[in-house]
């Protein structure tokens, strides 16, 4: 905290933006706080798996009209930072700022799955919260706009011996020797306390400011490294792997630079795991579909194996057609090779010529099934082998580039990752992916609406439009004969609400029906339609949820 406190104190906060990582289109739960006259910004990640707080010059920001960043920007833009401190020796940080309307506090709680960002007035009334918590969701505390802020409870084991703040004050007032450090770091481990104590004694460093940075780390083996801040020098724990990478070029110039590299490296690992999991899931689902298809093709090939026998029966019937009479249900003929008698079943309602035509038609159909099913089975088997190879490649892929190469080999229609599927989407239409993997298409203008509704959409696809407001046509494509799940319907309705003139409303009514129930107005402009048999759905415009949907755009 000392470095950030010295850097931010008396600084003017100009804007709060949505942070954009170098290899991603954006993370709705990562914010970038811009300051006047500064090239970088304060990066805050609310990711439950990888929360972070540091000063960055690598990560850019993106302005948004609505959403989490916009909600905090309305309150914090133009404020002056008074102080940045860590009230307790855990993962809680408080930034105090001031504007003409009064002072505010920004509380960052980096507590794992409960990571949150809360903006309050000085009296504790909540002005904005990243993850609202209602009384029904938690009996410990409520985090909603207007309620009173209460800090999260201490973690188990943090109350050992003296309180964390008491230990901090005790250490700040007394000399930093090994015994004092052992008492201070007792909740962590005796080895860590003894090792750090020896380092402090040997180096003779002042550690009062650095202890806040090194406490409760230990994600991987690290070393204490001094970082100059201009006014004073403090220590922090830097992973050994990062130090080995920096051996040739020297140590990082600041803690934020080291923290940024550690965070980005860990974020790449998490992104790699998420992408691998998504692709493996898509491959697994498609392999199951192929297995069912192969079973059906085997049954068809078994049925097609009767084609030679049926054709011999048809040829026998043609040779003995003069013996057949209408009303017969069977005819016994001698085989051409003299091997015995062959019984041919007939339809008594048909004439002899009709039975002959039916038998030859059945023989041709079985021959086509035999040839077609064998070709299709070979094609499907090759497809399954490709998927198995791609899945094996995913298991050994170690970086994002290798994952991207594996994605290109998958070519899954369900996941929609191929360039060919994106080329099928014209310029006037935007494509999104629902949580369940269904494709959602949104018209971008009047001609795009007409093209989407009457050229791209199928009869049984679901069609959405904001009721009583101008807006985009939205189509939720179905897979097979099953109706889309309710979550996909709600997400498509939300996209229809966002891309309409009612986007600023708190709740938007959206009408939806099947595509075949939509009709263009004769002689009217492009995009003007009428529809019937519609259902209504109310969409609550939650900013963070909307940002998550918009981040799933594919093309």
Top keywords for this entry?
single chain, 555 residues, alpha+beta, 10-stranded antiparallel β-sheet, 6-stranded antiparallel β-sheet, 15 helices, 22 strands, 38% helix
Describe it for me?
This protein is an alpha+beta fold and 555 residues long. 38% of the residues lie in helices and 22% in strands. Strands 1, 2, 3, 4, 5, 6, 7, 8, 9 and 10 form a ten-stranded antiparallel beta sheet that branches. A six-stranded antiparallel beta sheet has the order 15-16-18-17-19-22. The chain is elongated.
Unreliable stretches covering 5 or more consecutive residues: 157-252, 411-423
**Termini gap:** 41 Å
Give the proportion of residues in helices: 25-40%
> Structural class of the helices, strands and pairings?
alpha+beta
Quick overview:
The protein has 15 helices and 22 strands. It is an alpha+beta fold and 555 residues long. The longest helix is centred in the middle third of the chain and has 50 residues, at 255-304.
């Amino acid at each position: 905290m000392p470095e950030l406190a010295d850097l931010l104190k008396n600084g003017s906060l100009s804007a709060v933006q949505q942070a954009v990582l170098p290899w991603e289109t954006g993370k709705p739960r990562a914010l970038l706080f811009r300051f006047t006259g500064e090239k970088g910004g304060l990066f805050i990640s609310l990711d439950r798996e990888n929360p972070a707080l540091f000063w960055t010059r690598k990560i850019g920001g993106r302005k948004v009209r609505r959403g989490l960043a916009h909600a905090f920007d309305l309150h914090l833009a133009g404020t002056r930072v008074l102080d940045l401190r860590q009230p307790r020796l855990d993962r809680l940080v408080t930034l105090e700022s001031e504007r003409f309307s009064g002072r505010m506090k920004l509380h960052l709680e980096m507590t794992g799955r409960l990571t949150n960002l809360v903006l309050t007035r000085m009296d504790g009334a909540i002005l904005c919260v990243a993850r609202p918590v209602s009384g029904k969701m938690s009996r410990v505390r409520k985090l909603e706009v207007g309620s009173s802020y209460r800090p999260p409870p201490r973690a188990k084991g943090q109350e050992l011996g003296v309180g964390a703040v008491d230990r901090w004050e005790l250490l700040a007032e007394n000399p930093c020797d090994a015994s004092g450090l052992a008492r201070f770091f007792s909740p962590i481990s005796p080895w860590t306390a003894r090792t750090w104590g020896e380092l402090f004694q040997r180096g003779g460093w002042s550690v009062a400011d650095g202890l806040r940075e090194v406490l409760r780390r230990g994600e991987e083996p690290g070393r204490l490294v001094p970082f100059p801040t201009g006014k004073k020098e403090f220590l922090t724990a830097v992973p050994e792997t990062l130090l080995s990478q920096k051996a040739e070029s020297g140590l990082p110039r600041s803690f934020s630079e080291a923290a940024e590299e550690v965070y980005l490296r860990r974020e790449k690992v998490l992104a790699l795991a998420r992408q691998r999991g998504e692709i493996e899931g898509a491959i697994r689902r498609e392999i199951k579909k192929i297995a069912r298809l192969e079973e059906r093709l085997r049954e068809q090939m078994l049925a097609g194996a009767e084609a030679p026998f049926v054709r011999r029966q048809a040829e026998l019937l043609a040779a003995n057609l003069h013996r057949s009479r209408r009303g017969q249900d069977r005819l016994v003929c001698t085989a051409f090779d003299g091997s015995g008698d062959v019984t041919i079943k007939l339809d008594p309602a048909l004439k002899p010529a009709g039975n002959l035509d039916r038998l030859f038609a059945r023989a041709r159909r079985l021959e086509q099934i035999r040839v077609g099913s064998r070709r299709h089975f070979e094609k499907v088997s090759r497809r399954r082998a490709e998927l198995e190879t791609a899945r094996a490649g995913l298991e050994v892929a170690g970086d994002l580039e290798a994952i991207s190469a594996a994605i290109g080999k998958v070519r899954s229609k369900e996941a929609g990752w191929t360039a060919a599927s994106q080329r099928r989407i014209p310029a006037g239409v935007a494509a999104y992916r629902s949580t369940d993997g269904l494709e959602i298409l949104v018209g971008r203008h009047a001609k795009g609406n007409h093209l989407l509704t009457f050229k791209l959409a199928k009869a049984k696809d679901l069609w959405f439009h904001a009721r009583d407001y101008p807006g985009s046509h939205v189509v939720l494509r179905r897979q097979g004969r099953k109706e889309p799940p309710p979550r996909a319907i709600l997400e498509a309705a939300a996209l229809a609400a966002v891309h309409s003139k009612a986007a600023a409303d708190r709740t938007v009514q959206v009408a939806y029906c099947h595509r075949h129930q939509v009709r263009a107005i004769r002689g009217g402009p492009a995009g003007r339609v009428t529809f019937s048999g519609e259902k209504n759905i109310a969409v609550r415009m939650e900013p963070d949820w909307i940002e998550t949907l918009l981040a799933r755009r594919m093309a």
